[in-house]
Amino acid sequence: MDATFVAEKLLPMARTILHIDMDAFFAAIEQLDHPEYRGQPVIVGADPKGGQGRGVVSTASYEARKFGIHSAMPISRAYRLCPQGIFLPVRMKRYVEISRQVMTILQDYSPLVEPISIDEAFLDITGSLALFGGAEAIGWAIKKRIQQQTGGLTASVGIAPNKFVAKIASDLQKPDGFVVVKEKEVQGFLRDLPIFKLWGVGKKTEQRLRRIGITTIGELAVYPQDKLVRLFGKTGLHFWRLANGIDERPVIPSTPPKSVSQETTFETDTDDSEFIRLTLLRLAEALGKILRQQKLKGRTLTLKIRLQDFSTFTRSKTFTDFINAPDLLYRFAWEIFQKFDRQGKKVRLLGIGVSQLNTGGGEQLPLFGEQGNKRQKLYQIMDSLQAKFGKEAIVRAALKQERK
Q1: Do 288 and 362 lie in a common domain?
Q2: Does 108 or 332 have the greater pLDDT score?
Q3: What is the overall mean pLDDT for the chain?
Q4: Model confidence over 287-337: pLDDT tens digits?
Q5: Measured on CA atoms in the order 332, 338, 339, 345, is the torsion positive or negative?
Q6: Is-contact 146 155, C-beta < 8 A?
Q7: What is the mean pLDDT of residues 148-167?
Q8: Gap between the Cα atoms of 56 and 78, Å rounded
Q9: Quick one: which of 30, 117, 229, 375 is 20 to 30 A from 295 by CA?
Q10: Which residue range(s) make up the domain with 280?
């Protein structure tokens, strides 16, 4: 198998981070489960009567927000603002059920999913862009699947080079919003936003910033760093970095996934064996990189094949040791495919997955002996170069020739 790699397009690369936030999640689920509540002000939280007005609002529907009601507001005040509202108790079991559906959908687009609450999450989709047709295609696909699979719930999506900007973007056009901020647009996007939009700036900090003439993120971005540090300590430098669109925090999955996979659907059904082989090679490269990023190896490799008549098959191979090297993923996937009887039908979709995962432990299959160790080091070098210069910086020669 050709293991030659070619360096090209040594350009800096930005991450692509997606933030998804379900719209008025608890209230939206109540309106979903009770169609008669749709279009009505729904307030989920404490009982404004039975609880003697104690407790707070958990979520308010957008209809209720028009009355000035918001999360964490005392339920007694919410009742005074909207006595005709529909006040409902929290049904956490139901909300968790829907949340799990949503998080499962997100895992299909990246293994790097970091839930930050029951109704929102970050995804690092940098490694998934080529497979799914780009960031916007991923964002729209997620929104569509959530709406279809939950029965009508909407989500707002923000896409940007980092977590901070992506989260702000997702909040700008709620409900059902979709905002993309490219790397070159970050400072312009942030410039005129009010200073309270900055993470960590509460009412007291906002007042302190206003006293020194800072009312927007753009004004903070050009304020001298040393003065901010004198005023706020290390937090001042943190504010300055965010105001300039700098946020290097990684997306950290809360729990290791049970499996990791990559798949692609062809624009046209095919029986071209060389094209299929190169597709498996490309999928193996992408899957191997994701596994290495998460320091995962797996014992079971699964090949997914969907034929032109939409019939779908999976074939698996389990090993005694753990693997994550693209060479091995490709080799075994190709072997499985060659043994599969398609009965003359063309292929519509291909996917490669790895399960029975091990985080950090286990040894690579010793199929190549010392050569296997050398290849592991080679992949580490590739990852480092691609992280610095972009995924196109190092390309397998066979795939480079395919693109010509």
Answers
A1: yes
A2: 332
A3: 86
A4: 888 888 777 899 999 999 999 998 999 999 998 888 888 999 999 999 999
A5: positive
A6: yes
A7: 96
A8: 9
A9: 117
A10: 259-403
**Domain containing 223 — which CATH number?**
1.10.150.20
Give a yes or no: residue 319 inside a domain. yes
> Cβ neighbours of residue 224 under 8 Å, at least 6 residues apart?
none
- Are 43 and 86 a contacting pair, CB within 8 Å? yes
Please give the backbone phi and psi of residue 275, each rounded to the nearest 5 degrees, phi first.
-65, -40
Phi/psi at 343 (nearest 5 deg)?
Answer: 55, 40
pLDDT attached to residue 352? 94
What does DSSP assign to residue 382? H
- Dist. CA 197–CA 213, nearest whole Å: 16
Query: What is the side-by-side order of every strand in the sheet holding 42-45?
Result: 57-60, 42-45, 86-88
Q: Are 376 and 285 in contact (CB under 8 A)?
A: no
Read off the amino acid at residue 16: T
If one counts every other C-beta atom within 10 angstroms of the C-beta of residue 230, the result is: 10
Q: What distance in Å separates the CA atoms of residue 15 and residue 82, rounded to the nearest whole number?
A: 44
- Look at residues 50, 117, 32 and name the one whose alpha carbon lies nearest to residue 87: 50
When divided into structural domains, the chain yields a total of 4
| Alpha carbons 168 and 15: distance in angstroms, whole number | 16
Instruction: Give the separation between CA 47 and CA 87, rounded to whole angstroms.
Output: 7
Instruction: Report the candidate in 194, 208, 180, 198 with the shortest Cα–Cα distance to residue 244.
Output: 198
pLDDT tens-digit map of 124-133: 999 888 888 9
Residue 396 has pLDDT above 90, yes or no: no
- CA dist., res. 275 & res. 284, Å (int): 14
Element (H, E) at 322: strand 312-323
At 3-44, the pLDDT tens digits run: 333 333 333 346 999 999 999 999 999 999 999 999 999 999
265 and 395 share one domain: yes
So which residues are the catalytic ones? 120
Q: Which residues pair with 307 in a beta bridge?
A: 347
